[in-house]
Design a protein that fits this description.
The protein has 116 residues and is of the alpha+beta class. 42% of the residues lie in helices and 14% in strands.
């Protein structure tokens, strides 16, 4: 099964994760999170399959997150609004995302080693 690796190419964590995939000779398709931002449908599917809390999908250390003051706003937003917001700008989404048998948000080397 070919993995889907969603990244922001300038992100140092994404670079490290991509290098890890290559070093471990894993077959993956690369996708830029900004030029090919995940759609609302994809996000809904991933949330359902991974049972991740929507707020964990936000890139809380990103400039855009801080500019929009999302820390305060997310507490009052409905899930539907959050998904729409995430789908509107790839820079709001935590990365990298690795989709295979399981969905991994962020690069946790030990977790990837155990499951891949």
């Amino acid at each position: 099964m070919k993995l889907l690796f969603i990244e922001y190419p300038q992100c140092s964590t994404c670079k490290k994760a991509k290098q890890w995939l290559e070093n471990n000779k894993l077959d993956f398709q690369d996708r830029n999170i900004v030029s090919e931002t995940p759609t609302e449908e994809e996000l809904k599917k991933w949330i359902k399959e991974s049972e991740i809390i929507i707020n964990k999908l936000f890139n809380t250390s990103g400039l855009k997150y801080r500019e929009l003051k999302l820390k305060e706003k997310l507490t009052t937003m409905e899930d539907k609004e959050k998904i729409k917001l995430l789908a509107s700008d790839g820079m709001l989404i935590k990365r990298p995302i690795l989709i295979g048998k399981k969905i991994h948000i962020g690069f946790k080397e030990k977790e990837w080693e155990e499951e891949l």
